[in-house]
Amino acid sequence: MVASAFAADVQMSVEKPLISLLDRTVLKIEFIDTQGDAVDIPDVDGLNIQYQGQSSETRIVNFKSSSKIVHNYIVTPTKVGDYTIGPVVCTYRGGQKEVSTQLRVIKPQDDKEAQQISEIMFSRIATDREAPYVHEPFDLDLKVYIRDGVQIDGNFSLRGGMPESGMEGELKWEVTGQDRTDRNGTIFNVYTLHTTAKTLTAGTFTFRPEVQVNVVVPRQNRRPYGFDDPFFGDFFGRQETRPIVLDCNTLDVAVQSVPTELRPASYTGGVGVFDFDVDVAPSQLKAGEPITVKMRISGDGNLSQITPPAIAANHDLKLYEARSLPASNPNEVRFEQVVIPKSDSVTEIPAISFSYFNTKTADFRTLTKGPFPVTVEAMPQQAAQVIASIPSTVQQKTEILGRDIVYLKPAPKVWKKTTDIVWYRTKPFHFALALPALFLLAVAGATSKRNALANDVARARRQKAPKAARKNVARAEQALRQNNEAAFYEALWYTLAAYFGHRLNLAPGEVSLPVVLARLPQEAAALESLFNTIEQRRYGFHSNGGKSKDEMKSLLRQLTATLKKCERIKL
Amino acid sequence: MRFKACSSAFRRFPMNGFATEPPKGGTTNLSMRIVLLGALLVFSARASLASDDTFAQAQAAYNAGRYAEASMLYEQLIDNNVANVAVRYNLANAHFKNGDLPQAVWNYRKAWQSAPRDPDIRANLHFALNAAGAAEPVPPALQRFFQTLSQTEWIGLAVGAYIAFTLLLILGLSIAPAKRTLAKLSLLPAAMILVAAGGWWNWRELALNPEAVVVKAGATAFFGPLAGSTAHYKVPLAAIVRQRGTNDKGWLEIEYDGQRGWIKEEYIRRVSP
Hints:
The complex is a heterodimer.
Chain A lengths: L2 E2 L4 E6 L3 E3 L4 E8 L14 E15 L2 E14 L3 E12 L2 E12 L10 H4 E7 L10 E10 L4 E7 L15 E10 L2 E12 L5 E5 L3 E8 L20 E7 L1 E2 L2 E5 L11 E15 L2 E3 L4 E11 L15 E3 L3 E3 L6 E10 L6 E2 L2 E7 L4 E7 L2 E2 L1 E3 L49 H29 L1 H25 L3 H19 L9 H7 L4 H15 L9 H21 L3
Parallel strand pairs in A: 1-6, 3-8, 9-17, 19-26, 20-29
Antiparallel strand pairs in A: 2-4, 4-6, 5-6, 7-8, 9-10, 10-13, 11-15, 12-13, 14-18, 15-16, 19-21, 21-24, 22-24, 23-24, 25-28, 26-27
Helix pairs in contact in A: 3-4, 3-7, 4-6, 4-7, 6-7
Chain B lengths: L1 H11 L12 H39 L3 H13 L5 H13 L3 H14 L4 H14 L8 H6 L4 H24 L4 H7 L1 H22 L2 E4 L5 E3 L8 E4 L5 E7 L4 E6 L2 E6 L3 E3 L3
Antiparallel strand pairs in B: 1-4, 1-7, 2-3, 4-5, 5-6
Helix pairs in contact in B: 2-3, 3-4, 4-5, 5-6, 8-9, 8-10
């Protein structure tokens, strides 16, 4: 028998009460022999305390059990000093207790001057464009400063601090360089991370990245069994990493919208600095044959947002929709448009203009190419050209450009209401749902009965017995009305013979009083009387004619009553 | 009794100067029903015209670039209990154009739950999530299959399969020579019933573990349901998350991009019913 003999208690402690600035420790709140939830630890200036989760432990010593629920918090210092964590009130089953603990943080061994983490390592973000335009790419450079002598594992992770919305896609940071610099007489290793950002909307975008680095520090727990030799070093994992989130400046980027004033009609959304080329081929063709207009826009800017420049509409030209072509160069975008001259009067493909907003000069620029002379021959008279047929080049699958959301949907033909009862929640539906099953059960029952009767003659005859009796009783009643005694008794006999023949599954000649009595002894007296009386009257042993009609009626009643009783008897 | 009957007759047919005898109950009931039905039809026709009008105004506002006004008009339709997917989808478009990504994603996802195969909804939801820098929910293959039909469609399929199943069994019982063939055939609707049940459960699970959209900036998922807990990961604004647990202190355990964490309730808005 294991018994619990410990009183409920709550304790707060730190795993290591003395740590260096680059170290960290675990704060524990232990609920001993009781249960309790994690508590919010009040902020302590100079310490970062984060809840890590809970663990539980059960011990049995000398047949006495003790259990413990431990809530763990990671404590990371940001400044040196003596700290008191708490007091906090812990509520547990059975009471409350105020607990607190002490922690001392000292300077790191290899840096006698630093009082704060931010003096040892920090980050700084900067941009090349203070006020870019919407969709205009701008560079972001993030420099991570690590004091010389502090070792990190080289992994940088950005935990947040970026604008929540309005950015185009996710920022992809790359480490582009490593350098050493002198800062107030202290040498720092500088890691440069770079990305290019674009915004979808105008407004102020605030960047304050939370860069996390992993600082490599010596493992605190030394092995006690003789491997404390520098030779083994990292082979036995004498070092471990401490994740530290770096302090960073705030960078506000005021993104401007593209002006609407003086915006050319041919502006198709380009923001940046671009070149524009157009190629038209073939230049000699027959009316109804396609000309392919290839457009190439290259440069720095929001290439993916640019829609194809338009070719001026002309009643002699049939224009097909421009489509995007895959481009091997990431700094260019290509479009292709098919144009069909309808007649030989076409002498040129009109000039094509591409307008964009130049971010360097802060104005709209229009680049125009063409017109492009073409020689179009007339079609032979006998062949009527079907202009509308789509040339094979256009029949290729159109690429979904995905530059904007899909258009609105038209008005519905029928207005649905949230208050409308859904068809499958209506009572008639629930009722109707039961019908097929009920119908199936009925059919199954009928089929089963039919099969049973087909295989069981006795049962089938048993079911026919009342009907056969009723038929002969009807004949007897008819004979009674006609005062035909012979026919009446004959009918009564046939009633008995038919009923018991079917009921007891007997051949017609086998129905006799002894056989019936053997199977239905409960009604012996009534049956004996009936059989004898009917048999006597049937073979002419009539007592007297005057009473015969009343007697016949009485006998018929007796017969039907007896048969009803026999019908209720289970065999 | 007689007095009661008489008084109730007076209540139903109040006397006036022209009434000489109470009209017969059956005829009056029928005519009243016809009047009521007519009134109902007129009312619903007027309501339908009003919805048409509001919808047209919203479309016009959208096309003119007045997205806030378009959102308001579409929301007005929804407030008037209009349940068409087109309204929800257009509202999402208006929110998107107005720069309100969380509301756009929320409405796209709501519309998607009613019409999961609609390519426009899927494309725009994908686009909006991409613009928000949020990961798109990627369910397992089986769940994706179950999401090809809406809950109502799965129920419809199950009912159809159930009727086919019972009919085949009834025919099998009635036509003895075709019994075996029909019994084998009935396995097909039986399997369809099972698949439809899976599809129904897939949507039912959304009510048990609802989806939600992050509607407040700065959402951080923690390792534990505690303000001082270790930050696990940041959840972008307008991201779609799945609720996996809850506690009574306003914390929700969510799953986003395959990672679980705890977040305060105020950061999200529930999509699922």
